[in-house]
Amino acid sequence: MSNDEYNGLAPGVFEPLPDEDKAIAFEPEEYKRRLTRVREEMAARKIDMMFVTAPDHVCYLHGFLASWYKAHSPMRYPQMYGTAVHVDHDRLIHFDNPSELPVLAKSSVCEDIRFLPSREAAPNLAFIVDQLAKEKWLNGTVAMEKWSYVPNPAISAMFEGAFLSQGCRVVDGSEIIRKVRLVKSDAEIACIEKAVEICDIGHRKLKDTIQPGITELELFGEVTNAMMAAGGEFPALIPIFNALPVRDGRAVSSGHAMAGRKVIKAGEVLKADLSGVYNRYHGNVLRGYFVGDPPDEMVKRHKLAAGVFDVIRTDIKAGMTVAEVNTRLKQYYEDVGLWGQPGWALGYELGLSLPPDWVGEFYFNVADEKYLDRVFHENMVTNFESLFNTWLIDTCVYEKDGTRILSTTPLEIIAAG
User: Is residue 135 within 8 Å of residue 93, measured between CB atoms?
Assistant: First the structure.
C-alpha cells in the first residue's frame, strides 16, 4: 500500500519486509496440499465456496495469524475479515483491514489480499460481496463456519444475509477444515515434537525452581521464560498452574485454575498443565509436583495411573476404532482397580491452535457409550489424560505399529523443592 492509497486504516507507512524477517511456518507445497484437501472435501459435499473465519483455520490455509481478531470488538468497528476458498480454483482470496498488511506480509502465503475500505460493517460487507460476485464465486452453495467464535453471531448473520441476497444457498461448513486437519503431515508432526521438547524444558525448570515460599506466578514466570528462551510461543489456552493442599493422601481438585499470588507451601502438590508451542502447534504435558516427599499412597496411585501409557504405546495403533481403544484401556483400569473411582481417562486432538483454546475437534472418553465407530488414523495426535486423583497428561502420536508418547518427563508424581 503506497502513501497515495492511504485511507486512514493503517497506523503509518508500510515498509516491505526483507526476506530474512518473514516468518512463513511451512514450505509453499505444504499450504498447496492443504488447499487441495479442503477443495476435495468441498467437492464431496457439493459446496462451491467456503468463507473461512476461524482464526486457526485461516492460519492453517495460508499462515496468517494475528494478536487480535476483534471477537468482542466495538459494534461500530466489527470484525469483517475472512478467507474465501472456491472449489474450482487453486487460489485463495483473503479480506482484511489494511492495518494487518505487515502481519500478512510476514506470515501469509496468500497472494490475493483485498483490503477493506472502512471500519464500519455496511461498506465492508458490500465490498466483500461485490468482490466475490465479480469473481463469480457466489453462484451456488456457500459454506460458513458457524462453530467459529469469529465472527460473532451478529456479524455472522450479516454475512449470511448478504450471501442469501446474492441467491446463494448457505450451509454450515464448520466440519470441513476440522476434518482435513485431523491427520497431520510429517512437517506438522515435527512441530508437535518440538513443542513437546519445549514443554519438557518447562517441566525441568519447574522441578529445579519450585520451593516453599515462591508464589505460583513467580514460578510460572520462570517456567514460561525457560520455554520461550527455547523457542516456545504463547499457548492458546492459559495453563492450569496451581498449588493444592493434600487430604487423605490426594491433592484436592482445582478445576481450570490459573497461576495466582498464592505462596506455595511444603506438603502441597503443584499441578502444572503445560503446553509447548512451536509454529502454533501444541504439545500438552501435565505433571504433579509434591513439595517434599510424597506420601506412599500418592506415589502408588500415580504409578497405577501412569501404567496406561505403556498399554497405549504397545496396544493402541492407527486403524483401531474408539470402541476398540476404549475396551483395551478400560480393561487396564479395571485390572489395577482405578475404574469406577472419581476421575477420568480421555483425550483431545492437538495441533495448530490460536486463543482461546488448544483443543481440536476429535475427542474421546474411555467411558463413552456412543461415537464409538470413529477411527484413530495414522498421524493423528491427541493428548491423553489419566486423572484419578492423579496429574498425568501426555501427547500421543498414533502410528501403524503403536503409539508414540512424546514427553521425556517422568510419568509419576515428582518430588521437588
Answer: yes
